[in-house]
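Hello Y.,

Per our agreement to keep a running log of every chain we model this quarter, I'm adding this entry. I've kept the format consistent with earlier entries: sequence first, then predicted structure.
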Amino acid sequence: MAEEAGRFNWLDTVVDFAFNRVFLAISAFALVFALAIVALQVFARYVLGDSLIWAEEVARYALIWSALTGAAVAYRHGSHIGVTLLTDMLPLAPATAVFRIAHLVCLAFAGVMTWEGWFLTLRVFARGEISGGLPLQLGWIYLAVPVGGAFIMIAAFEGLLRGVHCADAQSDPFGGGSLDAGPET
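Predicted structure for the entry above:
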């Protein structure tokens, strides 16, 4: 049993650090950045009487990055909405099988999202498309799709390996501690 539990130790450490520190930080930073830009826009419009023409676009791009990276963190921590009425009534083994199938479906979807998003991003970069209000190549914004998809793939692959039954959305189904605690020591 100790051998079985130790089998995922390196995976636990790497994935916990990636999700609880790196991916969560990217998502949180993008969200806080969007909030700051919107607050700056409100201040400029109502206090200074002049609107920032780029603020809405920057906030939108930051929210895209926040949503696509944050979706992976939420998926890993079992925070997405799930209907578990039937799986809650199943014994552990069939419930685990159902959750493995669900992780497999999510892995496939995230794989398509990553694959297609990558080629879409490459096409946008190749065309040299520039943002309407900023001197920014839109490829950097489109890059959020394959990056978010890859993050979701990592979480789904981990869930598939573990066959996690995450009916309780309040718990951390992967044993990584709370969202802000990081890896347990």
